[in-house]
Amino acid sequence: MKLVIGIVRPDKANDVLEALYRAEVRGISMSRVQGHGGELDRVETYRGTRVQMGLSEKVRFEIAVSDEFVQATIDALCEGGQTGEVGDGKIFVMPLERAVRIRTGERDHGAVTPVGK
Amino acid sequence: MSALLAAAPAAVDTGDTAWMLIATALVLVMTIGLGLFYAGLVRAKNTLNTFMMCVAALAVATITWALVGYSLAFDGEAKILGGLGHAFMSDVGFVPREGTTIPHLVFFAFQGTFCIITTALVSGAVVERMRFGPFLIFAALWSILVYAVLAHWAFGGGWLAQQGTLDFAGGVPVEMGSGFSALAAALVVGARKDHGRQALLPHNSVYVLLGAGLLWFGWFGFNGGSGFNTGENSVLAFANTLLTPACTLLTWFVIDFLRNRQITAIGAATAIIVGCVGITPAGGFVSPIWAMVLGVLVTFPCYAVVALRPRTRVDETLDVLAAHGVAGLFGIVFIGLFAQKDWNGIANGLFYGDAGQFWSQVVAAAAAPAYAFGMTYVLLRGLGALMPLRGSDREEAIGMDIVHHGEEAYVTGEGAILIRPEAEEKPVAQPV
C-alpha cells in the first residue's frame, strides 16, 4: 500500500484525471497548491509595481493505492502531466501504514480498493 | 429612421440634448457591463484578457470613429458608403445635424458609443485564444469596414434606409453586424484547443448576472436615445426596453424548467441580453403589447441556437450569434409584421396592412448578415496571412492573462518578490 502524491500543472490536471480514469485508478483527492520547482520566474506588473512571482499554481493529487496499482498511477501522472518544460511537477511515493474506509470500517487493502472490484 | 427625423427643426432643444448626453453615457457603460458579462463566462485564467478586449474597443473604436468611421457612416446619402466630409470630425460642431435637435457633437458621441460596444461584442467569438495585438488591429479595421458601412446602410441614409428598412436602434449594424461577424471570426480563428474535449465552464456567474444587469440598464439609453429626442418614439422604445426583456426572462425560465427541471442563472443573464437585443430594432415601432409578445417569441430561436451550438465544432465561444445575430434578425423581421402606425406614426407592418414593409425588413435581414459575415471572414483571413492570430497551445494552456498582460485576475501575492528599481538591470526572468 502506497500513498502517491503527484504535483502537476493546473492546466494538465484534466489530462491527469483522464489518464487516471483510463488506468482504472479511482479514489483521488486533489487540491490547489502553490509551489516552486526550479522553473523560470514570471514577472508581472501591477500599476508600475513589478513583482517576481516566486510561486506558481500547482495541483496536488493524493492517491492511496494497493501495491499492484502503484506503477499504473505513476504512469498515468506522467502521461497526463507532461509538457516537457521545466515546471511539470513531481511524483512522490511513500509507504502507507494504515487505511480505513470510514463507511464500512474496512481496513488497508480493502479500504483502498474501489468499491465493486 | 430618416423618415422619423425629416420634419424636425434645426434648432437645439435643451430637453432633447440633456437626455442625449445621459443616453450617451448610458451606452458607454454597456461596454464595461459587457466586459464583466464576458469575463464571468470564461475560465479564471482568461478573465482579464476577456475584459480587456472590451476595454480595447473603448480605445480603438472611439479613435477610428472620430477619424473616419463617423464620416463613412453619416456623411451624405450615397447608397453604399458615406463620404469623407466629416473625416477628422470636420463640420461636427454645435449646430445640429440635419433632422435632429441636438448638437452635432452629441449625435457624433452617441453614435460613437454604438460603434464601441458593437466592436466589443465581436470579441465574444474569439476569447480565450486570440492574441491581443492582432485583436487590436482587427477591432480597428472591423469598426470601419463592417460597423461604419452597416451603420451607413441603416442609419446614415444608405440603401437599406432608402428602400424603407426600419431599424430603430441598430438591429442591422449592432446586432446582426456583431452576431454574424462573430460566426465568421470563430470560423477563421478556430476553436480553443480544449473545445469539445473538456468542460470549459464560466468561472463567475455573479459577474455574468451583474454584467447583464449593467447592459440592461445601459440599454435604456441605447434604445431610448435612438430617437435623438424625447419624443413619442423614444418614450415608446424606452418603455419597451423594460417590457421585452422581462418577457424573455420568464419564457427562458419556462423553457429551462421544461428541459431540465431547473432554472439557471446564466440562462437568465442570456435571456436579458436576448430580450434587449430583440427590442433594439423594433423599440420605437411596435406597441408595448407586441413588444411583450416579441419578448416571448424571440426566446425560442435564440434558445435553440444556444442549445445547438455546443453540439457543433464551431467554437463561437460566448454565443454572440445566438444572443445578438439571431435576436437582432428576429427583431428586424418582427417590425415588418407588427409595426403599427398608430403607435409609431411612420409605417404599418404586414399584420396592419403593409406587406411592403415586411419585404423591406426581409431584405435587411438577408443583406446585413451576408455582408457582416463575408467582410469579417475576408478581413480576418487577410490579417491571419500577415500575423498569427493565436498563440501556441502552451500559451493557451497557461492563460491569456499571464501571457498577454502579465497580470492575473485573482492574484494572491503570496511568494511574490518585489523588484526594486535599482535591481532592474538584472535579467527579468532568471532561474532561481
Tell me the layout of helices and strands.
The complex is a heterodimer of chains A (117) and B (432).
Chain A: E1 2-8, H1 13-22, E2 29-35, E3 42-46, E4 49-53, E5 56-65, H2 70-81, E6 89-95, H3 108-112
Antiparallel strand pairs in A: 1-5, 1-6, 2-5, 3-4
Chain B: H1 2-5, H2 14-41, H3 47-74, H4 104-122, H5 132-154, H6 159-162, H7 171-189, H8 205-224, H9 232-260, H10 265-282, H11 288-308, H12 320-338, H13 341-344, H14 355-386, H15 393-398, H16 400-405, E1 416-418
Helix pairs in contact in B: 2-3, 2-4, 2-8, 3-4, 3-5, 4-5, 4-7, 5-7, 5-14, 7-12, 7-14, 8-9, 8-10, 9-10, 9-11, 10-11, 10-12, 11-12, 12-14
Descriptive notes:
- The complex is a heterodimer of chains A (117) and B (432).
- The two termini of chain A are 16 Å apart.
- In chain A, helix 1 packs antiparallel against helix 2.
- The radius of gyration of chain A is 17 Å and the shape is elongated.
- In chain A, strand 3 (42-46) and strand 4 form a beta hairpin.
- Chain A has three helices and six strands; from the N terminus they run βαββββαβα.
- The longest helix of chain A has 12 residues, at 70-81.
- Helices cover 23% and strands 35% of the residues of chain A.
- With 117 residues, chain A is an alpha+beta fold.
- Chain A has a four-stranded antiparallel beta sheet, covered by helices on one side. A two-stranded antiparallel ribbon of chain A has the order 3-4.
- Chain B has helices at 2-5, 14-41, 47-74, 104-122, 132-154, 159-162, 171-189, 205-224, 232-260, 265-282, 288-308, 320-338, 341-344, 355-386, 393-398, 400-405, and one strand spanning 416-418.
- With 432 residues, chain B is an all-alpha fold.
- Helices cover 65% and strands 1% of the residues of chain B.
- Chain B is globular and about 65 Å long.
- In chain B, helix 5 packs antiparallel against helix 7.
- The chains are: A alpha+beta (117), B mainly alpha (432).
- Chain A binds chain B through residues 9, 11-12, 14, 34, 36, 38-46, 49-55, 83, 85, and chain B through 45, 194, 198, 394, 397-399, 402, 406-408, 411-419, 428-432.
- Strand 4 of chain A pairs antiparallel with strand 1 of chain B.
